[in-house]
Amino acid sequence: MSRIAFVAALEREVRPLIKHWSVSEREYAGGRKFRVYENGAAIVVCGGIGTVAARRATEAVIQIYSPSVVYSVGYAGALDPALKVGDLLKPGRVVDAGDGSSAHMPDGQGILVSHSLPATVAQKSKLRESYGAQAVDMEASSVARAAQARGVGFEVLKVISDEFNFELPATDRFVDTEGRFHEARFAFFVALRPWLWLRVIQLGRNSALATRVLCAALRRILTEEVRADSSAQATERR
Predict the structure, then answer these.
(1) Which of 228, 77, 38, 52 is nearest to 142 (CA)?
(2) Tens-digit pLDDT profile for the chain (238 aa)?
């Protein structure tokens, strides 16, 4: 079976999918370590938050595993007010808000724009106006660039975790240069600011729902890949 790789930012985005998969530490680019989850021909790497982390993770998984296709998967914020938490987006185009470059996926619909920081409600409005996009993330454009530079197939599957009018708490200060999110520091920050409590609780609920929907969709993708590969092998034997 051809290998398929999923690149996510954080483990919590894909935890229900990978909880029974084998896990290993792999080294790439001068000893940089990545935690990789494997189940047959499927690979998941949680590379961290942001463009640099996503690019490194994608380059690593391509170099080590030579997948036939790389998916950028995970959370996205809604730019279209009609989109709700748990809605899936398989875009036909990914745009990098930093330089305007884009990648096209013929089987998708709509536009996803990748932004360098978590988007505020005001920024969401501007991104929607500028790009006509339905959703925003932080990593997909970097995954696309790394995959296409190496001639590897590229796809995207995102799930809405925050709606258009939901103002995310300031989280970028808790992300280090490796793309790791420091949950303990963020929890301490929130604990001292009671006015953030309800918003953070709602964010947690939204994320939990988004994770369940995303992982169910990823399981369907893997099932379809297995069927397609089995069919191709049967055809070859005839």
Answers:
(1) 52
(2) 579 999 999 999 999 999 999 999 888 766 778 889 999 889 999 999 999 999 999 999 999 999 999 999 999 999 999 999 999 999 999 999 999 999 999 999 999 999 998 999 999 999 999 999 999 999 999 999 999 999 999 999 999 999 999 998 888 888 888 788 888 999 999 999 999 999 999 999 999 999 999 999 999 999 988 766 656 565 666 6
Phi, psi of 67 (to 5 degrees): -70, 160
**Beta strands 93-96; 111-114: pairing state:** parallel
CA max distance for the chain: 68
Give the single-character DSSP code of 51: H
Q: Which helix (H) or strand (E) is 61 found in, with range?
A: helix 51-65
To which residue do tokens 């994770």 refer? 211
Number of C-beta neighbours around residue 6 at 10 A? 29
Angstrom distance (rounded) from CA 42 to CA 27: 19
Tell me how far apart the alpha carbons of residues 189 and 156 are, in angstroms, rounded to a whole number: 33
Lookup: tokens for 197: 């409590």
Which one, of 85, 82, 137, 86, lies nearest residue 111 by Cα? 137
Contact in structure between 165 and 83 (CB atoms under 8 Å): no
